[in-house]
Amino acid sequence: MGNTVTNRVNVEAITKQVDDNPVMMYTRENCQFCTQAKQLLFEENIKYKECDLDLLKRESKSADYSGIVNGLVYKTSVTSVPQNSFDILVRYSGFEFTLYLARMLFCEQE
Fold first, then answer.
1. What does the pLDDT average to over 29-47?
2. pLDDT the model gives residue 15
3. How far apart are CA 4 and CA 2, in angstroms?
4. What is the CATH architecture of 5-109?
5. Where are the domains of the chain?
6. What pTM did the predictor assign?
């Protein structure tokens, strides 16, 4: 039974991406909410690192892609995009959360 879900979960890759980037966003190409979230961060001059899951799927081996996606779901318990990390402790999914966090964490500091 070596082909279990845990063999296809790469939590370490997700943890490293989040640790290395103060704002990390996981997206898909044709996701309107992802586009809105990226536009919001751009308008607020908030730098972020993006991981486009569709691009990742095309450019990597199937096992690498599955490990990242499964690791993301394992770590966040969320299957939708955009998924955002504004530091190692705060992770949210969806455009509304992006908007809320951007305002709370960045706009009120001005």
1. 85
2. 85
3. 6
4. 3-Layer(aba) Sandwich (3.40)
5. 5-109
6. 0.72
